[in-house]
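fold-stage: in
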Amino acid sequence: MTPGGLARTTGSDGTYEFLGLEAQQYQVQAQKAGYTTNTKSVNVLAGQATSGDIHLTPEKKDAEITITPSSLNFGTTQEEMSVTVTNNGNTETEWTLELGSNSWLSANPKAGRIGSNKTQSIVFSVNRDKLGETKSVVVNLSAFGNSFPISVSCSPKGEKKTEMSVSPTTLDFGDTAQEQTLEIKNTGEVNLDWKIKGITSDCITVSESEGTVAPAGKKVVQVKLDRSKMTGDLNTSFIVSDGTKEEPVTLKAVKAKATLSISPKKLDFGEELAELVLNIGNTGNAELSWSITNVSDECLSVSTTSGKVPAQGSSEVTVKLNRSIMPQTLNATITVSDGVQEEKVAVTAVKGSITDGIVIPEGMYVYYKFDDDFNDATENAIHGFGSNSPTFVEGVAAGSKAVKFNRTNNSSFVVAKPIIDSRDMTISFWGKDFGDGNIFYMVSSHQNGPMFTLSMKEGALKFIVTLYNNGYQYAKSGTFMHPTLTDGKWHHVALTSDFNKTTYATITTNLYVDGQLVDVVTEDANPFSEAESSGNSYGSGTKFIMGGSIKLSNSNTLNGTNMAVDNFRVYDTRRLSAAEIKSIYDAKQ
């Protein structure tokens, strides 16, 4: 009993008594040989007798028998071999050994009693005079209601026998192999009957599971691994047996897996770049499925958001930066995942000047790159729009775009401001697929008539400024002389024009083609009055239109053409020098 450490032995009726105890709770434990010990809590109250009945149950009797070794091979020479019987149970048991009809085999002793936690030896003997051939039998030891098998093999003296060898004894499939070979040889003097047993993994199969090998012969077995059934790395084994000898074969394999690799880990667009490439690699040995799960800023876009990469392969994703909507300083992330692993790519950029990377930005009023939009690339943001669905095609520079007009659709590009009515200006653009008809014009603030028209007639460019000359003198007005522009190639065209500066009361316009000055034309205009109603004044406009048809008068309409235009820019305060125009041409801007 605790606390107190008191002990009592019960009477024959099982009663016990502790006197003079203090009032508290006690733990009373009852023990008896052959019974399971039991404990009970008893609360003792002051001045009262307290009972504490404890029930004991008999221990379960069990004999746990083990036999080592459980297999005996006498070969052709051994005459005696022994096994050890161990009783790991809690009770003594009787045992008997049944040898069956195997007269060539004897054992001593063949029966007995074995106590708890005790061992006994049984000596087996063979009489080869009673053995005409190799025998492999199983005898049974019976104890405590159970049967325990012992395998016994023996061969006659001098008998011809098989001799099995298996190689290799370890098959390593690594992380890619799906098939290995196993060689079973018979170096003995009689036929070898072999069998493969103990395959426990359903991802392993063999071409043959049993067979016969002649003396000095061999058999090659294909061992196959179905990697689709692997749930993880493989470490298993099976047995090759000839009935007497058992050779274990170990099989190992690493489950193929994909490994996500991203480079670079940082994309820095700096102040000018608008496009960078992200490499998504797979350094593993299985196909990789990836997806871009997050792009943290709307100014970034990616060419594709998911894909597959073969083992040891890579894919490219183009990341584009829309500088028109980016913050002054960009610190963003792109997250790439393979479903298990995530990689984050840091993306940085600085807004910089809007004209960074543009040659001759000084004095530039508008600049339309037509890179999939009609926006003005300068800080003036005088954006235009497409009418009747002009399209975008490959531009003059690699990776750039241009606007393409369609005569049938009468498509056009419109700017709702008069961007070319300056008295001292430069107009610069690239074009191809020119044909006779309208190129661009401005709508006059007087009765919405056409002015500042650039067109082509019989393959030659014609630039006419005033309302009067466009309406009444178009046919009589001269054209520029210049190299061929209708050869289907890109050509750079620049016009530098002034009114009343080079020559009094005269509009003087210089034409540059592909960076070279090729011609000059003049046009008279009224220098005394800017009254729009005169029609012969320089005038001003309300909007600019490129492409489509134009009605010059009731009797003269110029059709639209199928031309393409790229990098249209206007300088509204100065005429560029020949060297500056050559710089624009060389830069393909």
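fold-stage: in (second)
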Amino acid sequence: MSESHSEFESAPDAFPVKLSNFEGPLDLLLHLIKTNALNIHDIPIALITAQYLAAIELLQELDLDVAGEFLVMAATLIHIKSKMLLPRPETAAGVEGEAEDPRDALVRRLLEHQK
């Protein structure tokens, strides 16, 4: 073996595999087989394929439009909460400004979205 598997860096988005004799990213499994650290005969390819197909099916069920809308609303809620937690700016007269309540803006956006 010219290279140790401890020196191997897996891709951050590598597909994770769970087998009886290995658990980790698929690219590391391939590396270990190529460097003879694992025997290819001990690897159940059908199980890896089944795990991959299950992951693909799960991705197809995810509605990206709904997920995107959720992320926008979640980010808006976080923004509103941060504004509510910060002290309001004072006007020139020294009285707290009559700035619009950020929750009102969210309600307007939700009503526009429903149209």
